[in-house]
Amino acid sequence: MAQQEFTDAIALLKADHRTVEELFEKFEKTSSSTQKEKLCRQICTELKIHTMLEEEIFYPALRGKIEDDTLDEAYVEHDGAKVLINDLESAGPDADFYDAKVTVLSEEIKHHVKEEEMPKEGMFAQARATDVDLVALRDQMLARKQELMAQAKAGGLPIAKPSAVNLVTA
């Protein structure tokens, strides 16, 4: 994962989007519960790393430079995904609603990706119109991604923590 593979932070994030889309497609096509569990774990890890990169580095760099509503919605969309990710990570492929949760997660992510990648008004288009150094952000994000991938391999990433949605428990 060399820095020159990605021209800037947006190229890195788009590559992550394509990776997750492929994993969701593979999940949909398999009937093996062992394979489903493996793919689901990969999806969850990829999404956790991706959301951490966006929330720790990318979104804060854009705050005040693009529409606040765009960023606020992205955080809330991430939180919806985090709830499903945590639920899926604590379950197995034989759990109730497992496949349905992966499907809904896939649909949420497709919507989120569309919002980010939309020409003209999408987050990435807005980001390109700012003075944010997207190459420097790429370098920060790649370094953090390598740390998180090593952590995931070593013992796993921490539970995904929603930041904009308050989870009410009885």
The oligomerization state is single chain
Task: Specify the structural class.
Answer: mainly alpha
Gyration radius, in Å:
16 Å
Question: How would you spell out the order of helices and strands?
Answer: HHHHHH
Distance between the termini: 45 Å
Question: Given the structure, what is the number of helices?
Answer: 6
Indicate the low-confidence ranges by residue numbers.
Answer: none
Q: Which geometry do the CA atoms define?
A: globular
Largest sheet: none
Beta content comes to under 5%
Average pLDDT value? 93
Count of strand segments: 0
Q: What is the count of distinct domains?
A: 1
Give the SSE map.
Elements: H1 9-29, H2 33-62, H3 68-89, H4 98-117, H5 123-128, H6 134-154
Helix pairs in contact: 1-2, 1-4, 1-6, 2-3, 2-6, 3-4
Description:
- The chain is globular, with a radius of gyration of 16 Å.
- By secondary structure, it is mainly α.
- The longest helix has 30 residues, at 33-62.
- The protein has six helices and no strands.
- The chain has helices spanning 9-29, 33-62, 68-89, 98-117, 123-128, 134-154.
